[in-house]
C-alpha cells in the first residue's frame, strides 16, 4: 500500500532522476556510498517513521507536555521514537566518521529526515534542534567544548536548543537583555566561563527528560566596562549553557541555574515543549551560587554571526517541515478521495446509480492537483537547496563551492517562506477534500493544518524574509547572487526550448519573461530613491519571486518527466507542471505589475485611520 | 475602550449612513421603531455579548462538550449566556408581535446577532439553529405544529436543529436513506405521524440539556408502494422529530426514540455539540414501540424545497459568522499592533532608541489593512443582503420585492463563500501580526482561525456554491438575476463617476470593466458546448466574481466616506477601498483570463496520474 507519510517514488525521482545524487559518490567524502546505501538509509527512515513516529502523532497532540511545577511529563512514545532514531544513527548521519557519523550527503540526510518530520513534526523537532546545535558548535567551539557538548549530542545522549528570543525581543534580536558576566575559573574553560541572567522565550525543547542533558545555545550580552549592555546586535555573544554541568570525565554533574517558568500552549506542534526559561534567577546554585554557568563560544560580540550558521540550516529545515506536512496532507486527501463515494457525474441523471468516488469530481481533482503542484514543487526546491549544500561543501573547485553558496543564500528566504505559505494552503485544501470529516480530530488533516501554521512565524517571519530577499539578497555583492540564479534559470529555459515539446517551449517562454520582469521590477524598486518605498511591499515581492522560482522547479521536473510520457507517474508530473504554469504563475505577473507601480497604499496608511 | 468584538462605529456606518435602515420605519411592519429602538437593541446585544458570550469563548473551546454515554455535559456558562439571550428577547427579535416578537428589520437582527457570533460563535450557534428551524416551520407547518414547536422555540424554551446529512450522504442529499413509515394515530397529528429510522451526521446542537426540548427538523424518505425508497431528491420529505414528545397542553412528555451515537471532535467550533444521531433504533420506545415519532411538515416529497427556506437564511448566517470572526480577529490584531513594541524604523540606525509599536512597520500595516479590507468588505455584503431580505419582505411593490429576491438569490453563494475564504485568511493574518504569541492559546486569534475554517465546508461546500453560481444563478430566468445585479453595479459606477473624486472615478472604471468581463467570460463558458467544460472551473468563477462583488461593496462605502474626508474613520474607509482596488481586484482579472481559456487541466487529470 502507498504510504500516506511521503511518496518514496517522488523522492527517488528527485534524488536519482533529477539531482543525480549518485554522482556525489565520486567525491572523496562520499566514496563509501552508493545508491544502495542511500536507499537503505531511506528504507530505514521510512520504517522507523511509520512504526514509531506516525503512530503517536495524534497521541502527543492530544496529550501535550505538561508541567507540574517541577517536571515536564511527555507521553512515553516520544522517547521510544527518539531512542530508535538515535540508535539507527540518524543524529550523526551526515557527520564525519570521526564523530561516529555516516558521512552521507546532506541531500540524503534531508530526504531521510523528511520521513520523520512528515510522520511527526513535533517529535522530530527535538532531533533537528539537536543537529543544528551540534553543527553550530562544530563550526565555532573549542575542541574541548566539542568533546563535552557535541559528541554527546551526535550520539543522542544530549539534546540541544537555540535560545534567541526574549519576551521583549522576538524579531528584534538587538534588544535582548540577557546578561553574561565573566566568572573566570581555574580549569579548562577558564576565562570562557560566564554567569548568565535573563529570560528566554519560545524555547522549543527547552525542558524535558528525553535526554540525559540539554545543551542550550544562548545569545546574551557581555556588559561593557561601565557595566551597561551594549545596544544593538554588536553586543551579542554566544554561550553554551547546559541544563546540567558536565564533569571532566563527561559525567552529568550539578543542576545549572535554569528554571522553567512556563510552557506555551500552541495551536499545533503541541508535542514539542515550548518554554519560557529563566536563566540565573537563583532557583539552583551551581558551584555554590546563583547564576547560570555558560561557556563563551567563539569570540565575544560575534554571537549573532556564529548563530547564523545554524539559522540558514534551520530555515531550510523549516521549509522542509512545511513542505512535508503539505505532502502528507495531500497523500491523505488523495487516499480519501479515492475511497469516499459521494455524488455522481454531472451528466448522470439517474439517482439510482451508485455514487462515485469523489476523485471523479473535477473540483476535487482541482484541489488535489493544486496540492500536488504546491507540495511537490516545494519539495523540489528544498531538495535542490540541499543539493547546493553538498555542492558548497564538496564542489570540485572553490569557485563551484562559492557559486553554490550564492545560489543558496538567494534561495534560502524563499525555501523557508514559500512552503510555509503554500503548503499550509495545501493542508487547507486537504481538509476541504475531506469535507466535514477533515474538520474533525478523528481524521489527520486538521492537525497538519494546525501544525503547519507555525512555519510562517518562526525562524524569521514572512515579513522578515521579504526584507531579507528584497533589501539584501538581490542587491549584495553587486547583484551577484541574483545574477547566479538568473543564469541557472536561463539554463533551464534553454534546455526546455531544446526539448522539442510544445508545452515545455511555451512554459520556457513564460518563465523567461517573468524572470526578466523580476529584474526590471527590482531595478524600478531600487530606483524609488527612498528605501521606505523600495521595501514597503517586500512581502509581496517575496511571494512573487517565490512563485516564479517554483515554476522554475516545475519546469526542471517536467524536463525529466517529458522523457517518459507513457508512464502515469511522469504524466502526473507534466500535468502538475501544466497546472502550475496555467493556474499559479499568472499570480506572479499580477503581483509584479503592482510592485512596479511602487504602490504606497500600505505605507500611507495611518494608525488613526484603522 | 474600543471593543475587540466588533466595531460599533462601522456597524452604525453601514446601517445608518449607507443602508439607511431608518427609512424602513416608514413601513407598516416597522412603524413602532426608530433609530433609538435600533440602537437600544444593538447596545443590549453588545452588552450581553461582552459580559456573557465573550467571557466563556476560550473556556468552552478548552472544555468541549463531553458525552458519558448517557448525557452531554457542557460548561454552565453556555446556558447562562443563552438564557440571557432569550430573556432579552433576541430569539424572536425579528418575529411578529403575535409570536411575542419585536418586529425588528432583518438587517437590525443580523447586526445584533453579529455581536453574539463574534463574541462566541459556538454558543451563538444554538440560537441561529433555533431561529432557522422556527422560520422554516412558520412557512410550512400547520397552525398546531406552530403552537407546539415554534412558539416554544421563539420563547427560548426549546432549541432546534436541522438534520440533513447522513454518513453516506453529505453533499449528496439525494442519497439519504432515513425512512419514514406512516404511523397514523387518532388525534390532531393524525395522518401526519410517521416513524423514522436512520442515522443523521453532523448535527449541530443535536444533543444537550440547554433547553427543555430539542426540535429536530429531519429530512427522510417515505417509501413507495413497493416499500422501497424513491431514489433522488424527489423522495425526500420534511419532519418534526422532537427529542421529547409534547402533550396537548404543551407539556414535555415521553422521550422519543433518538439516541446520541457519538460526538464529533472538531478543530474549532468546539463549544457546539456536533452529533451522530440514531433515529428509531429502539433505545427508547415512545407510545410503546421503537421508532422515532415524527410529524410530516408540509406536503410529502417536498421536503427539500421546504428545507431550502432555511438553507438560504443559514447560508447568509454562515457568511455573517465567517465575517465577524474575521472582524474580531482584525480588532484583536489591531489592538496588539498598537501596544506591542518591537524593532525600529528602517531609517533609525541607533539601537539605543526605544522600540516602536509594530503598527509603525509597513508590513504590519499591510496585514491590518488587508484584514480591514476583507472583513469590512464582507460585512458590507452581508448587511447589504440582510437589507435585501427586508426589501423582499416589505418592499413597496411586488416588483420591488421580486427584484430584491433576485439580487439575493444571486448574491447568496457569494455571501456564504467569500467571507468563508477571505475572513479565514484575515484570521491567519491576525495570527501573523501577533507573531509567536498569536500561535498560542494564551491569546485569542488562533481560536478564531480554527473556528472559521469550518465555514467553507458546511451549508454547502465552496465547490457546491461554485456550481450553484455558475451552473444555476447566472443562467436561470434567462439571466434575469445576473441582469439585476449588473444594473445595481452600473448604478454604483454612475454614482462614482458623478462624485468628482479622481480615485473613485478610476475605481468606477475598473469595476465597470471587470463586471463587463464577467459577462463576456460567462457567455464564453456557456458556449463551450459541454457542461463538463463549462463547470470544470466553477470554484474559480465563484472566487473571481466574489472579488468583484466585494469591490462593488467597497466602492459603495467609499461613496459615503468621500463626503467626509477630514475624519479618520472615513479616511480609513477610503484607504481600505484603495487597498482593495489596487491589491485585490487585479486577482479577479487574472482569474477571468484563465476562465476564458476554458482551461481543462483539472478536467483532463486522471486518477492514476496522482
From TrEMBL, chains A, B:
<dbReference type="GO" id="GO:0050660">
    <property type="term" value="F:flavin adenine dinucleotide binding"/>
</dbReference>
<protein>
    <submittedName>
        <fullName>Acyl-CoA dehydrogenase</fullName>
    </submittedName>
</protein>
<keyword id="KW-0285">Flavoprotein</keyword>
<dbReference type="InterPro" id="IPR046373">
    <property type="entry name" value="Acyl-CoA_Oxase/DH_mid-dom_sf"/>
</dbReference>
<dbReference type="Pfam" id="PF12806">
    <property type="entry name" value="Acyl-CoA_dh_C"/>
</dbReference>
<feature type="domain" description="Acetyl-CoA dehydrogenase-like C-terminal">
    <location>
        <begin position="487"/>
        <end position="605"/>
    </location>
</feature>
<dbReference type="Pfam" id="PF00441">
    <property type="entry name" value="Acyl-CoA_dh_1"/>
</dbReference>
<keyword id="KW-0274">FAD</keyword>
<dbReference type="InterPro" id="IPR025878">
    <property type="entry name" value="Acyl-CoA_dh-like_C_dom"/>
</dbReference>
<dbReference type="InterPro" id="IPR037069">
    <property type="entry name" value="AcylCoA_DH/ox_N_sf"/>
</dbReference>
<feature type="compositionally biased region" description="Polar residues">
    <location>
        <begin position="168"/>
        <end position="177"/>
    </location>
</feature>
<comment type="similarity">
    <text>Belongs to the acyl-CoA dehydrogenase family.</text>
</comment>
<feature type="region of interest" description="Disordered">
    <location>
        <begin position="168"/>
        <end position="191"/>
    </location>
</feature>
<dbReference type="InterPro" id="IPR009100">
    <property type="entry name" value="AcylCoA_DH/oxidase_NM_dom_sf"/>
</dbReference>
<dbReference type="InterPro" id="IPR009075">
    <property type="entry name" value="AcylCo_DH/oxidase_C"/>
</dbReference>
<dbReference type="InterPro" id="IPR036250">
    <property type="entry name" value="AcylCo_DH-like_C"/>
</dbReference>
<dbReference type="InterPro" id="IPR052166">
    <property type="entry name" value="Diverse_Acyl-CoA_DH"/>
</dbReference>
<feature type="domain" description="Acyl-CoA dehydrogenase/oxidase C-terminal">
    <location>
        <begin position="302"/>
        <end position="466"/>
    </location>
</feature>
<dbReference type="GO" id="GO:0016627">
    <property type="term" value="F:oxidoreductase activity, acting on the CH-CH group of donors"/>
</dbReference>
Amino acid at each position: 500500500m502507498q504510504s500516506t507519510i511521503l511518496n518514496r517514488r517522488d523522492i527517488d525521482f528527485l534524488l536519482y532522476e533529477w539531482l543525480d545524487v549518485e554522482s556525489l559518490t565520486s567525491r572523496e567524502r562520499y566514496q563509501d556510498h552508493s545508491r544502495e546505501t542511500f536507499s537503505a538509509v531511506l528504507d530505514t527512515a521510512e520504517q522507523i517513521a511509520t512504526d514509531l513516529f506516525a503512530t503517536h502523532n495524534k497521541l502527543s497532540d492530544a496529550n501535550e507536555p505538561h508541567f507540574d511545577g517541577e517536571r515536564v511529563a511527555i507521553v512515553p512514545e516520544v522517547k521510544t521514537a527518539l531512542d530508535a532514531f538515535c540508535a539507527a544513527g540518524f543524529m550523526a548521519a551526515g557527520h564525519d566518521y570521526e564523530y561516529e557519523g555516516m558521512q552521507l550527503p546532506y541531500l540524503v540526510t534531508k530526504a531521510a529526515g523528511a520521513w520523520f518530520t512528515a510522520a511527526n513534526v513535533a517529535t522530530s523537532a527535538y532531533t533537528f534542534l539537536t543537529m543544528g546545535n551540534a553543527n553550530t558548535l562544530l563550526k565555532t567551539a573549542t575542541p574541548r567544548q566539542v568533546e563535552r557538548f557535541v559528541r554527546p549530542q551526535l550520539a543522542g545522549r544530549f539534546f540541544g536548543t537555540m535560545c534567541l528570543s526574549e519576551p521583549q525581543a522576538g524579531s528584534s534580536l538587538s534588544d535582548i537583555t540577557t546578561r553574561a558576566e565573566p566568572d573566570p575559573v581555574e580549569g579548562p574553560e577558564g576565562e570562557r566561563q560566564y554567569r548568565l541572567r535573563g529570560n528566554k522565550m519560545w524555547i522549543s525543547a527547552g525542558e524535558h527528560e528525553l535526554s540525559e542533558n540539554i545543551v542550550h545555545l544562548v545569545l546574551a550580552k557581555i556588559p561593557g566596562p561601565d557595566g551597561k549592555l551594549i545596544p544593538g546586535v554588536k553586543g551579542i555573544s554566544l554561550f553554551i549553557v547546559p541544563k546540567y554541568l558536565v564533569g571532566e570525565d563527561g559525567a552529568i554533574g550539578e543542576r545549572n541555574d535554569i528554571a522553567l517558568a512556563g510552557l506555551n500552549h500552541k495551536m499545533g506542534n503541541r508535542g514539542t515543549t515550548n518554554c519560557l526559561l529563566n536563566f540565573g534567577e537563583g532557583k539552583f546554585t551551581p558551584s555554590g551560587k546563583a547564576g547560570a554557568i555558560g561557556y563563551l563560544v567563539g569570540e565575544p560580540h560575534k554571537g549573532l554571526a556564529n548563530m547564523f550558521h545554524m539559522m540558514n540550516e534551520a530555515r531550510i529545515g523549516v521549509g522542509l517541515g512545511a513542505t512535508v506536512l503539505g505532502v502528507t496532507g495531500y497523500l491523505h486527501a488523495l487516499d480519501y478521495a479515492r475511497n469516499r463515494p459521494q455524488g455522481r457525474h454531472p451528466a448522470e441523471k439517474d439517482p439510482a446509480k451508485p455514487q462515485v468516488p469523489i476523485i471523479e469530481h473535477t473540483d476535487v481533482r482541482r484541489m488535489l492537483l493544486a496540492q500536488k503542484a504546491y507540495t511537490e514543487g516545494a519539495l523540489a526546491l528544498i531538495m535542490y537547496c540541499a543539493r547546493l549544500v553538498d555542492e558548497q561543501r564538496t564542489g570540485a573547485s572553490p569557485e563551484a563551492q562559492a557559486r553554490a553558496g550564492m545560489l543558496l543564500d538567494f534561495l534560502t528566504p524563499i525555501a523557508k517562506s514559500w512552503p510555509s505559505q503554500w503548503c499550509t494552503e495545501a493542508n487547507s485544501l486537504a481538509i476541504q477534500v475531506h469535507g466535514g470529516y477533515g474538520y474533525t480530530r478523528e481524521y489527520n488533516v486538521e492537525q497538519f493544518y494546525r501544525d503547519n501554521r507555525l512555519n510562517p512565524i518562526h525562524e524569521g517571519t514572512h515579513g522578515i524574509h521579504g526584507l531579507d530577499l528584497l533589501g539584501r539578497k538581490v542587491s549584495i555583492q553587486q547583484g551577484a547572487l541574483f545574477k547566479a540564479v538568473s543564469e541557472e534559470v536561463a539554463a533551464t529555459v534553454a534546455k526546455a526550448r531544446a526539448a522539442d515539446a510544445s508545452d515545455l517551449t511555451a512554459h520556457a517562454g513564460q518563465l523567461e519573461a517573468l524572470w526578466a520582469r523580476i529584474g526590471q521590477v527590482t531595478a524600478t524598486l531600487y530606483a524609488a530613491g527612498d528605501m521606505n518605498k523600495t521595501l514597503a511591499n517586500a512581502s509581496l515581492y517575496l511571494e512573487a519571486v517565490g512563485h516564479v522560482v517554483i515554476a522554475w522547479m516545475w519546469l526542471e521536473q517536467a524536463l525529466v518527466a517529458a522523457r517518459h510520457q507513457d508512464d502515469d507517474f511522469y504524466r502526473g508530473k507534466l500535468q502538475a507542471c501544466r497546472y502550475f504554469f496555467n493556474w499559479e504563475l499568472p499570480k506572479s505577473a499580477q503581483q509584479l505589475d503592482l510592485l512596479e507601480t511602487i504602490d504606497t497604499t500600505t505605507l500611507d496608511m495611518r494608525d488613526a485611520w484603522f
